Amino acid sequence: MSQSQNIQGRTEPSLDVAPTPQNTPLDTGVLTNRPANLGQPTVETLAEGEESEGDEEDVGGMNPASLLAKNPALLALAQSKLEDLIGRSSGYIESLPAPVRRRIDGLKGVQVEHSKIESEFQMAILELEKKFLSKFQPLYERRQAIIAGEAEPTESEVEAGKASDSDDEEEDEEEGAKVEEINDDKDAAGIKGIPEFWLTALKNHVPISETITERDEEALKLLTDVKLSYLEDGQPGFKLHFVFAPNDFFEDTELTKTYYYQEQVGYGGDFVYDKAIGHEIKWKEEKDLTKKAEIKKQRNKTTGRTRVIRKVVPTDSFFNFFKPPQPPTPESLEASDVDEDELEELDARLETDYQIGEDFKEKIIPRAVDYFTGKALRYEDDFEEEDDEDFEDEDYDEDDDDEDAPEGQADAAAANPDCKQQ
């Protein structure tokens, strides 16, 4: 399934937009009558090294760009005003003749029918996913039996697994040597199945690994399986099942989390997340991994006596995954005292929560062994491209590279920066 739309339809507005009826001037006569040979605006083009007399004092003795750069509050205000204009009608549609407006309304009606078929398409894909999950299920059960030590892989399964890594023969040989060394030092007969399989797999998924604390690891070592099921009665959505061995942390042996899609698809034709419902974990006494005790000493200023205060406060934990953030209600969005920063933070938390749920469904459950071995990391988008935001601008003077070069070579280097002196 393709990635779902942004949560609750909230998207960041973009100022770099193509001309539309919303931002096209009502009076377009000037543009219509422009000469065919009129290209860029008639502003004198400066050659390199030349300066314009009005560069530094354009508006009130200051360049507008410099004015905005030196006043962040003014820049933010200008951006806010521009964002308010996005999506508003400029009057262009209303100015068209009635027959043309009627045809546009007709096109909107055609689009409505298109949206209905998109919904049918997504529901059909969801039904197909359900059908194929039943085909995958025996493989997941076989995987679980091998992990738990209830069964051993057959020779054909082992050979197929080795063949799948034929592109990395050298790496496999090195890993094989390491495993042999370990087996020589330890008695392998006492090892059952694949210890800490799911903990290792989860720690190799970067967003999830960032939520796992040292305290969580003791509980996650007892995670024996992660399963997927789909909702019944035509409700679009899915449920994640985390199966644990009996443990000292909580009474439950299975924790669940359910993700609901909205019944109507989003503008892009994909399902839109509606909400997520987590499992209320029944923690054993003083074993709640989502909380920690803070102990403080207080001294009485009068008597000098001290007392110890013990306070339980929330803390970071993987198990907060089962207490998902909830989308804002319409009433909270309409409130006059709504905090935009808090809404943005909530949006980010919801986006992260839904994305992790989708990753469990689309990546981790189907390819758990690839996350255990780390093979899946080669295919993660985060490791293929570096975001421009990860780089900071630094002042750079090209003359610094050429100041020691002989006269003439420096000019050549400036003219052709790709050409390096040998």
UniProtKB/TrEMBL annotation:
As for family, the record states:
Belongs to the nucleosome assembly protein (NAP) family.
Q: Which Pfam families does the entry mention?
A: NAP
Acidic residues bias spans: 47-59, 166-175, 381-406
List, as start-end ranges, the regions of compositional bias called Polar residues.
Answer: 1-11, 20-43
A GO BP annotation: nucleosome assembly
An annotated GO cellular component of this protein is: nucleus
List the source organism: Kwoniella newhampshirensis
| Renumbered residue ranges of the record's region Disordered | 1-65, 147-185, 320-339, 377-422
Q: Where is the composition biased (Basic and acidic residues)?
A: 176-185
Query: Membrane-spanning residues where?
Result: none
Protein name, entry field: Nucleosome assembly protein 1-like 1
